[in-house]
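Data availability (excerpt). The following record was deposited with the supplementary files.
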Amino acid sequence: MGLTAKQKNLCTLIFALVVVAFIAVADKIFGAFPLRIFNLTAIYIILALSLNLVNGFTGLFSLGHAGFMAVGAYTCALLTMTPAQKTVNFYLAPIVPFLGNIHLPFIPSLLIGGILAGFVGFLVGTPALRLRDDYLAIATLGFSEIIRVILTNLQSITNGPLGIKGLPRYSTTYTVWSIAIVSIFFMVALINSAFGRSCKAVRDNEIAAQAMGINVARIKITSFVIASFMAGIGGALLGHQISTIDPRLFGFILTYNVLLIVVLGGTGSITGSVIGAIVVTISMEALRFLDGPLNLIFVRTQGKPGIRMVVFSVLLVVVVIYRQQGLMGNKELSWDGIIKAVTRLGSKFKGNRGSGGNR
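Predicted structure:
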């Protein structure tokens, strides 16, 4: 017998209170480095949800996420920095006058960065989404590289390859996790709406979806713009956490990290994106020792930077070969499913104890 709607709402409320309490405790007791990883997990949750909206729920293979993150990060950085900070950063070429004197609070700057990233996503998606599969992936990757090259050469706006340093650390624990939680609830509401069902229909069969009266082109572009907006928000939060940005930060490897989370967690699963972001972010730091010298008793190795990424690449290949649906596939955790799983484990445990006692 499943839980009633009232019981499910009560469980959700209790779980939300536990999560909020854990975030508050973590902010107080975690050291600087663990807290940084904890907050980075929230940022990757936002980025994974945004990419999963395109790749998992709409069925579009996009590799241009880093470009939209860069647009959001640079926009928010330029708006939140004081004129004095901009003068210090732009010493090779002075910043353009209309940006030099602008100074806005963080939240409006964050939203403007997301909106501008969404607008760039619209400009990129309008021609690129006419393509499919590998051609779309190549096109979006190319657009991402174009954005990075433009940022490198706009010396008087982005400070070129030198990047921007000394950003205020506005990405506090409460800020990033509040936005991550809002993103989760937003995605749940979006996917369960008529628009979300249309996205799944387009993913499963474009021809059938169009025959049912769904405007396939509009669904694709809207999905791409929303994902670009969320990517811009995530990029801005990332920039204000590490306090420095430059064009090299937003290379393909950043998109690869987010794609790894989506594939391992499960394309088409919000729960999978959240679990994948937690597992991958923590594991990437836990395996950082692989980049340094190793003493394996009989074998000693010199430090080789990038070995941990090789491990994750191998893991990705294994998942693609043996479990293409990822950890969650397209399924979501539910209270009924959790109750059934706990009941099944309890029955199995009692059965094992009973059979052991009868021997």
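Summary of structural features: The chain has 16 helices and four strands.
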